[in-house]
Design a protein that fits this description.
With 124 residues, the chain is α/β, with parallel strands linked by helices. It has one domain: Rossmann fold (3-Layer(aba) Sandwich). The chain is built from six helices and five strands.
Length: 124
């Protein structure tokens, strides 16, 4: 039986996360188990929306986004930087197996707070 406290976001893990639809959906549940406030695009009901609209929604929800889509999100991060548009962070992950993806994502997130992730582009 799981401890219900493990499902609650931990105060020291203040980063709120959105998992793009191109990333393993199970990553959202695994990050929640680790104490993060995490939601997948599928869970949010935003599957199929444009990357620009997805990032705008993530900003409105104060969430960093994790994606495999460097081709579209890296240029968006650059445009946002030069236009002075604030966001909560973009994390681009390589296509790892599920275990490696989870370990590398946690290694990055566990060393950050929301303030240090905001307006940055990170790679896992």
């Amino acid at each position: 039986m799981r401890n219900s406290l493990a499902m609650q976001p931990r105060p020291e893990r203040d980063i709120r996360i959105l998992i793009d639809e191109d990333v393993w959906d199970g990553l959202a549940a695994a990050l929640r188990e680790a104490g993060y406030d995490c939601l997948s695009v599928t869970e949010a009901g935003h599957k199929g929306i444009s990357d620009e609209d997805l990032l705008a929604w993530a900003i409105a929800e104060e969430r960093a986004i994790i994606t495999h889509n460097a081709q579209d999100f890296a240029p968006l991060a650059e445009v946002y930087f030069f236009q002075g548009v604030k966001h909560y962070g973009i994390i681009i992950a390589r296509q790892f197996d599920k275990g490696t993806l989870l370990r590398r994502t946690l290694a990055l997130l566990d060393g950050l707070v929301a303030k240090s992730l905001a307006n940055t582009l990170r790679f896992v």
